[in-house]
């Protein structure tokens, strides 16, 4: 407007001057027009510059709008009260609402409850002018949770109003992956219980609290007795079914102040607060045993299980979780040594026991390497003729310092540690070699019985390994008798298959300790076996316990109908021998005839006969 007034005034002055100075009117008009023309040129350049700036500004705005709308991250602009002013398409996708549904609504309305307080405080800081980054979560329109990594940036909406821009990245999948990794690191994937690592972490935390409160913590290590038998007999699927049932039952034994974990295999760990002495321990163990009383149902099978438990109680000393767990483990090992289905509370003396077990393992490994074992032989006698018709090979450990050691001292540990496999292979080879040597010396051929351990029986290619030993020693298969226990036949299909393979070799098979295991009479007739051995626990009391006498009589009668031979072990008196003879038992074995003897002593018996008459 000012420019127009200047130009109008300028033109009026120029016209009046030209009227009064007529001779020079043309030049005056030309000179007057020149500044006007220059001014108009400047004005044109200014207009062009302003037009170009406006166009450039419009182009920048277009770029910013494109970045906003097409950004893969969710972006929202919010006023001072946290209400939506504008959102992009990614934000609509993350929340499941359209822009029209979100406008004028507060962002906090969509934040999950557990993240609400933190998110509100962070957004307030952004509104006050502090940019920051944080994690939060919102609820999608469909109801599921979306985890977000958010950056809040303050923005000046007008001269007197502040707001903020929120830029969010969907990290739901990453969070789920992190949670899965954490779950795998701290939880047992089968039972869903905490694992050893989480148990240790929680135990350390609880120990610190207990010391401050003057309380004690008791750690229980529990191991299911003979659980391997379930896996070996029924398969790992059944074993896993039992573990799931065990986990569920054990959760009934704890309160919110206690803790349960599956540490490995069939081993579970508990810790209990306010357990001060053995009386409290006994009360807890009684509750654990109570939930184990009911049989476990594995499809058509019902199984009763027992547990061995080791307990360690915290003291005033600065004990950490690892120390208490180690003590509980030592106590558990002691409970197993005591015969299982028992519990032991850790004491200082057990440390030496643990050291002794380690020493025993080292000495056994040396004994295997140096072949420090020897075989003793107990004759098996025909009850009618009194003639030796077979022998059982029994191992002894010829310790360089302690002399001859009974198998009762080391066989149980060898089975637990797996050393029973090389020991069993040595027994098999040595027995076959000795029997062949007796035949070469001119003694009448007779079978030699060798006990197979559970681990050996379930070994891969058992048939091939036994065949190889027979070939090495030159012993005819008919003069080898393999003894298995009833418990090895629980997996019927595997037992039948393995026994058939052994019978293909031509060896004899007997079931040892018959009457103490789980054999079904229905399946017994299907097993390709030659002989049953009546367990010594029945023979021992046949003269004083009518029940034992009835059991022995029944077993002998049953074997006759199944066309099997029967041998009674543990015969120690003439009365027992007479009872067995009356009931037509085929063979007998026991101290009444001879204890286990070395090879030279047995050769003397083979030459001159046993000292006691066999028939009554």
Largest sheet data: 8 strands, mixed, barrel
Please tell me how large the radius of gyration is: 46 Å
Task: Give the overall average pLDDT.
Answer: 84
Q: In percent, how helical is the residue content?
A: 40-55%
Shape call: elongated
Biggest sheet, spatial arrangement of strands: 13-14-16-17-18-19-20-21
Annotation field: number of helices:
22
Topology diagram in text:
Elements (H helix, E strand, L loop, with lengths): L1 H19 L4 H46 L3 E5 L5 E4 L1 H7 L3 H4 L13 H12 L4 E8 L5 E14 L2 E10 L1 H15 L9 H18 L3 E8 L2 H8 L1 H15 L8 E6 L2 E7 L4 H16 L2 E3 L2 E3 L3 E7 L7 H17 L5 E3 L3 H22 L2 E10 L5 E12 L3 E3 L5 H7 L2 H21 L7 E4 L2 H4 L4 H12 L6 E6 L6 H14 L2 E7 L6 H4 L6 E4 L1 H4 L6 H16 L3 E5 L4 H9 L4 E3 L9 H10 L8
Parallel strand pairs: 11-12, 14-16, 16-17, 17-18, 18-19, 19-20, 20-21
Antiparallel strand pairs: 1-2, 1-5, 3-4, 4-5, 6-8, 6-11, 7-8, 9-10, 13-14, 13-21, 14-15
Helix pairs in contact: 1-2, 8-9, 11-12, 14-16, 16-17
